[in-house]
Amino acid sequence: MPTVQDLARALEAAAPLAYQESYDNAGLQCGNPQQEITGVLIALDCTPAVVDEAIRRGCNVVVAHHPIIFKPLKRLTGANEVEQTLLKAIKNDVALYAAHTNLDNVRHGVNRKLADKLGLQHLRILDPKTGTLAKLITYVPATHTEAVLQALYTAGAGQIGDYSDCSFRMEGIGTFTPGTDTNPFQGRPGQPETTPEQRVEVLLPLHLQRAALRALRQAHPYEEVAYEIIRLENEHQEVGSGMVGELPDALSPQEFRQRLKTALGVPVVKHTDFDRPIKKVAICGGAGSFLINKARAAGADAYVTGDLKYHEYFGAEGQLLLCDVGHFESEQFTGEIFRDLLTEKFGSTFALFIAETYTNPVRYDC
């Protein structure tokens, strides 16, 4: 049976922990990584009621979007809901796992799900991250170039947007003198050697550096592998905050707000005044006020997010329709992402449920 560690690896392959924000605390929150999984309950938030539902359904893992341990804990006495949730989980051997801003920041994550629900097309990341990529350069005899490249591709290198197996190569001449205690692939110890080589370059996500170098050394024929890793400031088009896309057809502001209500099942949309057609739409699941300026700069006609404060509505400056649909409401479909990822990886090897427990603390009188 798969273990909690297997589950964590599968989720982190899709939403690497390296992509979470500095203030976040994604990953395994409590539980034994080696524990075999009997069932997984998926929820947006982890509360005592969610853990109760997991126990009732025979699940010993809860996968949530929001981390239950977000601020440092000084004691564990059950004095508040966070401590009560943790104590209940620990007493009943229920592991708690969270994928939060790392799932927000990948292209196929929270914002893609919201965009799909709204019917947006031609999607791109609204605020791509920088400093997450490197260029890996190595030098390979021509007879082994393909084998080395395939090993690097398998390790996660060479991906540029929707293009895979991307590389650059250039012919050159390599020179070296093997030491007396070496066993060179070609040439003889103590004798200078000159050989045709190919300079190979691939793009590499920084968090995969260790895996890529391990693959390089295993596939490369030389005892000593020459390589360079250069950190890049390029924007990572697959990683970052928010998303922007287009509606199939332009809508009036009133029609667009009705689309939000219907697609998200929300009774109320808080919004600014705006009287122009809506075609380009920017979105950010959760609390997204930090992207208002980015949405305007992207030329969005509307920006959809949650948790906007009074003064933040002035940030629209009459240039776009600013819509607050609620934090929970903008992320309510996150469970479908977890379900699809775990089903694809593990099939039916354990029971998998989306929680019936409703965790939204906000209520509306309409």
TrEMBL record:
InterPro entries per record: DUF34/NIF3 (IPR002678), DUF34/NIF3_bac (IPR017221), DUF34/NIF3_sf (IPR036069), N-reg_PII/ATP_PRibTrfase_C (IPR015867)
Alphabetical UniProt keywords: Metal-binding
Metal-binding keyword on record: yes
Keyword field contains Metal-binding: yes
The organism's place on the tree of life at top rank: Bacteria
Pfam families the record matches: DUF34_NIF3
Sequence similarity: Belongs to the GTP cyclohydrolase I type 2/NIF3 family.
The protein, known as: GTP cyclohydrolase 1 type 2 homolog
Gene source species: Hymenobacter duratus
